[in-house]
Amino acid sequence: MSSRMSVSLTRLLTGAVAAFCIALASTLVAASPAQAASTCASGGTVAMGKYYVTNNLWGAGSGSGWQCSWDSWQSGDTIGWGTNWNWSGQSNAVKSYSSVVLGWHWGWQRPGTELPVRIWDNRSIPTTWNYSVSGSGTMNVAYDLWLHTQSNPDSSSTPTDEIMIWPYRSGGAGPAGTYQTTVNIGGANWDLYRGWINAGNGNGWNVYSFVRTSNTTSVSLNLRDFVNDLVYNRQWLSNSKYLTSIQAGTEVFVGSGQLDTNSYWVDVQ
After folding, report:
1. Could you tell me where the beta strands, DSSP code E, fall in 49-202?
2. Catalytic option among 71, 144, 162, 229
3. Is 162 a catalytic site residue?
4. Separation between Cα atoms, residue 87 and residue 89, nearest integer Å
5. Per-residue pLDDT of the chain (269 residues; tens, 9 = 90+)
6. Which residue in the list 71, 144, 229, 251 is annotated as catalytic?
């Protein structure tokens, strides 16, 4: 073989190998999932369109441990996210409520939330949530709704009312307050509790908790039905108040585990 032919063949082979490597690298990059954003900081957040995930470790002082939260995917207003934890300490005290937030949470972060809305406007608020829970300990999976007397609460505004909706709990987790009655909403039975949260310095708010009588890992609800039960059936809540926030996450008391939200969506219509 002549030296010219040898050089030409070498160049041809080198070019072919280079082209193959570039194509392979492109294929590998295309097949790799997008890197999820995550936070393990107390109060850390991850933006997800009109929502944001917050690593809310508000009760960590009653024990010791850690928790991290992350986004998984997003398509329009439907999202997936997750959180894992390991907590020890006082078994009847909540350590954290890592959640996805729509609207107010001691301030505002994201646009396009469609909140606040006045209760008497009777806006429909459909939601779906499909999730899986692993691990052991005491915890719940819950919606958390906040209400104010003013339409534009800020970071210093104390809410007047909190409405929790628990579709899942384990390890003997129980809500604040005392049992009042059992109601049927959205095709399921819920034990209703009523209590008061003392926030100190003369501040506090009413808390109402709907605890599903049997666990589920998939819900399709209209949150308006729970609000209206308190307003019109119980007359515990004034319809002149504003719904300012809708959150969905897990309250962890003690233990280790993980909540994976496969799909979550809520809309104020």
Report:
1. 51-54, 63-75, 78-89, 96-103, 117-118, 126-148, 161-170, 178-185, 188-200
2. 162
3. yes
4. 7
5. 433 333 333 333 334 333 433 343 333 333 223 448 999 999 999 999 999 999 999 999 999 999 999 999 999 999 999 999 999 999 999 999 999 999 999 999 999 999 999 999 999 999 999 999 999 999 999 999 999 999 999 999 999 999 999 999 999 999 999 999 999 999 999 999 999 999 888 899 999 999 999 999 999 999 999 999 999 999 999 999 999 999 999 999 999 999 999 999 999 99
6. 251
Cβ contact 139:225 at 8 Å? no
Q: Which residues neighbour 205 within 8 Å (Cβ) at sequence distance 6 or greater?
A: 158, 159, 160, 161, 162, 196, 197, 199
Greatest Cα pair distance in the chain: 98
- Two tokens at 233? 């059936």
Task: Give CA–CA dist 269/249, Å, rounded.
Answer: 22
Sole residue written with tokens 């790799």? 32
